[in-house]
Amino acid sequence: MPVSLSIADHVARVTIDRPEVLNALDREAEMQMETIWRQIEADASVRVVVLTGAGDRAFCTGADMRNVDPGQTGLGYWAASRPAGFGGIALRETLDIPVIARVNGHAVGGGFEMVLGCDIVIAAEEASFGLTEPRVGRLPLDGGMVLLQRQIAHRHALGMLLTGRRIKAAEALSFGLINEVASRDALDAAVDRWVAEILACAPLSLRAIKQVMRRTGHLSPQEAQALRLPALVAALGSEDSEEGVRAFREKRKPVWQGR
What we know:
The protein contains eleven helices and ten strands. The chain is α/β, with parallel strands linked by helices.
């Protein structure tokens, strides 16, 4: 299988299992990714997702250009419906669970678009990032052009987009693209630390926070504050909201039920 999913202790781990092609995605893998995201969305036990690539060379290098349909034009690809963006995650609007990108190597093209669709990014020192499509006469159509300019400074975004160059993890950190850089030996420990901190929070609170962040960025603060988003209402009326206060008063860790 080109993509694997494991779920344990409230953590869903999604791994692109195609190291022989630097974890590039073909049509089968893209379809499987969409199925996996829908499965995660339907599983109320999942509180955090970790997305990564198999091996130690690449997170994902985008579309598998060896298997590109010779009859598929750029205009035809652009016109096709892909509302969730590359890998089903770059532009996904229905996943309110926190997603961590564990970037173990190259994240370029569509792979970088997937990183841009995640919430927290932990990268190995050797990792690299870039939207290299212009160098092969293509465009980052699945989220790259529209997401990068919203996540980093204007000049940095244009510097990457207009050259197709790749940047290393240290530079990505300085741009504010990623949260943390770790040595390869310490990468899993760094990811586990972030997972533990997320699991320490009320899951419905995190769903509400992500929903507000993702769906109100185009509004004024006053307009955003006035919205009654479903996840926000659910969190405020939840049993967990009472448990958090009760645990604080009793000087113990809260036991979240997700309801």
